[in-house]
Amino acid sequence: MTAYLHLIVPASRFRLVRGEGALATYTFNTGVAKHLFCRTCGIKSFYVPRSNPDGFSVNVRCLDPATIASVRVRAFDGRNWEAHAHELAHLSVDEPEPRR
To answer: Topology of 6-90 in CATH?
Structure first.
């Protein structure tokens, strides 16, 4: 679970069900990114990324597989993320739920 597979979601679509008291927050440099991790085991299951400060990046590897219908992984240049951050901006924009 320590390997991170990003799923960026708007803040309005993120809900922490329990365990907030077990989290610690770490920030550095600009202070925009909020790195939250478990005080007990150190796993970082989600955080507020600098690239999308109006959303959360959830670690897909920390989700219960039974709750996921499918995942599509797209490659992203993480080493040079600042030059490509504009490619991520739309991911934290809240869109209306699709009609079913």
So the answer is: 2.170.150
